[in-house]
Amino acid sequence: MNLEQARQTIQARSELNAFISLTSEHGEGDVVAVKDLIDVAGTVTTAGGVILPDVPAQKDAPVIEAIRRHGCVVVGKTNLHEFAFGVTSVNPHYGAVRNPHDSSRVAGGSSGGSAVAVAAGMCDWAIGSDTGGSIRIPASLCGVVGFKPALGSIGLEGVIPLAWSLDTLGPLARDVTTAARAFTMMSG
């Protein structure tokens, strides 16, 4: 997939509310969607809310730096349950994230936008966060692969926390092989 194909699919499936914002990046490589709790240089990190400063991040979180070293490009920031505190991804500010298989159903949360982006072919793979099921629940409901890696296996600097003692970043992908490759890029 390339960025232009990803952007076209995102636009064509905008009713799913998978994204809060898109980047203006260019380049080749894996197209990655990033949960909007994680700093991506030049984009505002909202955490799915409207109370944080409307100021773009000055630098990438270390996990984004890591995937860029592997040639990945970020297509945009995905929608989520506000401040990652819920399991539906029904967001009052950016719209409810809709399940791509049946838009009358929830996508799961809190990494719902990341799961939908993968399931609907809007990216090659996505980054989510998991405290108590926030990758695993939407992966299950959207029919993609996602797992909660071991605590501390991926640094959390540049990530808005829910619970430092439980928060973990992890991949969502269409298949196990891609998820494993994504985890390797994310964790080094």
Please summarize the sheet with the most strands.
6 strands, mixed
Please indicate the percent range of residues in DSSP E strands (runs of 2 or more): 15-25%
- Overall pLDDT confidence: 97
Helicity, as a percent range? 10-25%
Strands, total number: 8
Instruction: Assign an overall shape.
Output: globular
User: How do the helices and strands follow one another from N- to C-terminus?
Assistant: HEEHEEEHEHEEH
Unreliable stretches covering 5 or more consecutive residues: none
Give the CA-CA distance, first to last residue.
23 Å
Which structural class fits the helix and strand makeup?
Answer: alpha/beta
Radius of gyration: 14 Å
What descriptors fit this protein?
alpha/beta; 188 residues; two-stranded antiparallel sheet; six-stranded mixed beta sheet; single chain
Summarize this entry quickly.
By secondary structure, the protein is an alpha/beta fold. Helix content is 24%, strand content 18%. It has helices spanning 3-12, 62-69, 112-119, 136-142, 176-187, and strands spanning 19-22, 31-35, 73-78, 90-91, 95-96, 125-130, 145-146, 168-173.
